[in-house]
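Re: beginner question about structure tokens

> Can someone show what the tokenized structure looks like for a real chain? I only ever see the sequence side.

Sure, here's an example I had lying around. Input first:
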Amino acid sequence: MLSSKLAKELTIRGASEQAARKRISRRSEAIRELHGLPFPKGAKFLFVDNQFSSRQFYDALYEAIKDSAPAYAAALSGMRARGGVTLKEHFTIISGAPIAQKKQLSSNVILERFKNAKLLDEHEILGAGTFLYLQGSSSDLNSLHSCLITENIALDAMKSWLGKMNMASPGKIQTRGREALPKFSTFHFDMVGPSYLRPISKFNKETGKLDPGFFVADILLGRIITESDVVPFIRKCKSLSAIRNKRETN
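And the corresponding structure tokens:
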């Protein structure tokens, strides 16, 4: 339970805010604080010592993240949508977090905090790459490998279709799985490409030419998509909309 939620429970039962804070700070040694995963407004995740790493522990931690830490929640949703396992290099795509952006937690910071809190385990498999596993995940590498191959085929098909429909420049569309991850502004996506569609391209008075907008996409196959699954992508789009002097996206 978060310390802020516990303090609220104590005030509901009649304690003053100051008394509630003191009671929490003077708690029993059996009540521990989770280190490595700071929450907004200085809140701390508290748990009973003998419950650490149990299913009850992770269920409570996931619920605390969902309720009070949007950046963590988006990354957690991205991992869960993929069965709790992903290539380490893809975390920056599925986390919904920027590479680097003012007043935002970067994907690397979130990854390190998740690892410090033992939410994610990192394993390197010879010939396959480095993988991240979410605690409690039951997925296996064989299913992930098959899914990644299928997604890459779908991305190539989408790339071809976008070119044929003149929605994006086929020769300049970048897809995941190549030398560098596709990037637009401060975020990585599974696919990025310039587009001259009228609603998102703009005429540049200085050059006398059209400046393209950009088509971006993330892919997720192998399951029925839920609202939680698309949280990371929506978060990226909302963050981009707040950035000035960016080109339009579709």
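Each token stands for a local structural state, so reading them left to right follows the chain. The mean pLDDT is 85.
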